[in-house]
Amino acid sequence: MKKILNNKNTRTNLITYLVVIVAFVIMQTLYSLDMLSNSMKGYLVPICAYVSLAVSLNLLVGVCGELSLGHAGFMGIGAFSGVVIAALLKDVIASDVLRLLCAMVFGGLLAGALGFLIGIPVLRLRGDYLAIVTLAFGEIVKNLVGNLYVGIDSDGFHMAISTSRMELLEGGTYLIAGPKGATGVEKLASFPMGFVLVLLTLFVVLNLINSKEGRAIKAVRDNRIAAESVGINVTAFRMKAFVVSAFLAGMAGALFGMNYSSFTASKFNFNTSINILVFVVLGGMGNILGSVISATALYVLPEAMRGLEDFRMLLYAVVLILVMLFTWSPKVKEKTEVVSEWVKGLFYKLTGKKEVGVNE
Amino acid sequence: MNEYSRKILKVPTYTLLREQDISKQPVLDVRNLGIDFGGLTAVDSFNITIGPTEISGLIGPNGAGKTTIFNLLTGVYQPTRGSVLINGIDIKGMPIHKVNRLGIARTFQNIRLFTDMTVLDNVKVGMHNSIHCSFADSMLRLPAYFKSEKMSNEKAMELLSFMGLADEADVKAGSLPYGIQRRLEIVRALATNPSIILLDEPAAGMNPSETAELMNQIRRIRDTFHIAIFLIEHDMNLVMNVCEAIAVVNYGRIIAKGTPEEIRQDPAVIEAYLGREEGKA
Q1: What percent of chain A has pLDDT over 90?
Q2: Do A230 and B95 touch (CB under 8 A)?
Q3: CB-CB: which of B114, B116, B152 is closest to A226?
């Protein structure tokens, strides 16, 4: 056990899991004691979804070093396909939890498969081109879903992409009604399921990073030519990161969608992609715990400031700029190092261990 | 199965029988290699054969095409003419990572390390293809994962200590001093378990004592791992002392081949390096 804890990576991972679990336990306790405000209760599931989205995007941007601007597209695919699956399985699977799980897995698989498809041409490109294509991908998804009609009537399942309304027989229901988006969605999402999703995301991403595959992905990021020269198939590993990231985003999207009774395709626009990217950048590239914290804080912040109305986004921007300035300032870095050394010293004092260090 | 340690433990320095090597298949067999960039012929009719445990050098004035040749040998460029055979297999049309798997590894003139990763991880990336652990193993943290990680850690540490870098294992590669970065590149190349290693100016930027140490290390690599070494170098002291055979290129063509002694006295080489004497032109 001691040996495991001495490994820096393992320690950081354990801390990440611990933070998430403790946060969940606290929130769940407060929730069951009914000590949360109604608006706070409403934030819980989206926070989980955004944490997963930020962590999965971090895999792509921070670890793999590829800038993707279409993460909301994958999220949207997951959300809409998840809603359809959940509605179709309504009579087959009685358990809400199981149905949500099916919806999430299907949403993830579809997003992952689409990620693979667009990855084939895109991952041959280098640098900014990936950002441009993923940006376009996000917009295409948004516009396609905006004209997508999915419904059930006595004839069965109908699906069409058209600019005019798809007509259903008497008594039919629309699952996705074009520009109106998904309507009549069952609110299957719950905070515990969100927590499970976050844990799953962390499990997948952290295990991937600390494996042979993860090392290869990081190597491709640091130096593509050198990675090739030691026998790493660069395209394959970029693809792996891309598909895993899309899969997780799809799952998070399904959870996110199932938290609202209705939502439109415009929810998954460029702004959402950028927001997720902001979570990643502010939390630190490649820093998974950072993504978790910044996604939570930055999601709650503008919501909590709703009372300020017009000044809300202005303040949000000011906060972003301040955080950037502070985290990059060398003086602040020095101070945080002093604090972390102090905390470490305290930790070793409390546990009665000698510091594992240079002078031993 | 620990191949490196087996090699390190037995160090059969005096059992190198060069006559035996000659009868063996060459690790690198280059026939009539050439490449044109647009209208410019960068390399032309380049022929070389390197035996299994030979240390050979490639020298020539700046811009002679030496690094281009290395890039052709490792699959970075596709040749316009001719062929490259590594352990008897033609690399034509292969992507770089597949060429590496045939048994050729290299270092770079302008160091290309994975700067944000630790020294140990750099070496483990080099071992990528010899770590047997599937995607599912590592995602689910199955026993195979821990086993392969333990083994690769041990192997990597062995290789690092072989080049005297064991103390640096947990340091980020980008923060190492220049000379050590060069050595780490060699370790990373060795980690791919090659049968020939190409060193592109390994002594560049090193002081004389570091260069002397490097010369010893190059010989030790050959003697310990029984692999061929092909190096580009401007430091004549190193080339003349370490290499058993030298090829001199100028304007993309070989102008002389031979032992260090022969090369030193070759008029074409002297001319390429020093220019012609006046009146003889």
Answers
A1: 48
A2: no
A3: B114
User: Out of A218, A223, A228, whose CB is closest to B96?
Assistant: A228
State the Cα–Cα distance between residues A65 and A61, nearest whole angstrom: 5
Q: What is the pLDDT of residue B279?
A: 56
C-alpha to C-alpha distance for B60 and B66, rounded to whole angstroms: 7
CB under 8 Å to B189, separation ≥6 — which residues? A229, A230, B105, B106, B107, B126, B197
Its sign, for the CA torsion B71, B73, B74, B75, is positive
Question: Between residues A130 and B114, which one has the greater pLDDT?
Answer: B114
Checking if the pLDDT of B4 tops 80, the result is no
Residue in A closest to B185 by C-alpha: A226
Higher pLDDT, A337 or A241: A241
Q: Check CB contact under 8 Å for B138 and A212.
A: yes
Among A73, A28, A67, A82, which residue's Cα sits nearest to residue A53? A73
Which three-class secondary structure state does DSSP give residue B31?
strand
The CATH number for A2-146+181-304, chosen from 1.10.10, 1.10.3470, 2.30.30, 2.60.40, is: 1.10.3470
Q: DSSP state, B57?
A: E
**pLDDT score, position A6:** 61
Q: Of A287-291, B9-13, B106-110, which range is least confident?
A: B9-13
Place of tokens 């950037």: A324
Type and span of the H or E element at B121:
helix B119-126
Chain position carrying tokens 């050394």:
A341
* Alpha-carbon distance A43 to nearest alpha carbon in chain B (angstroms): 30
In this structure, the number of other CB atoms found within 10 A of the CB of residue B27 comes to 26
pLDDT computed for residue A294 by the predictor: 92
Tell me which residue in A230, A234, A240 faces B125 most closely, judged by beta carbons: A230
Q: Please, which residues have CB within 8 angstroms of residue B225's CB and are 6 or more apart in sequence?
A: B7, B190
Q: In which band, very low, low, confident or very high, does the pLDDT at A3 lie, cut at 50, 70 and 90?
A: low
- DSSP symbols for A67-108: --S-HHHHHHHHHHHHHHHHHHTTTT---HHHHHHHHHHHHH
Q: pLDDT, tens digit, for every residue of A300-343?
A: 888 888 777 778 788 888 888 888 887 777 777 778 778 878 88
A-to-B residue pairs, Cβ atoms closer than 8 angstroms: 92
Euclidean distance between CA atoms A256 and A206, whole angstroms: 22
Nearest by CB to residue B117, choosing from A8, A219, A240, is A219
The residues spanned by each domain of chain A are: 2-146+181-304, 149-175
pLDDT at A355 over 70: no
* CB-based contact A273:A262 (threshold 8 Å): no
What global pTM score does this model have?
0.86
Q: Which of A84, A92, A99 is nearest to A152 (CA)?
A: A84
Q: Does B189 touch chain A (CB under 8 A)?
A: yes
Q: Which residues contact A48 (CB under 8 A, 6 or more apart)?
A: A191, A194, A195, A197, A198, A252, A255
pLDDT higher than threshold 50 for residue B8: no
Mean pLDDT of chain A: 87
Mean pLDDT on A139-148:
91
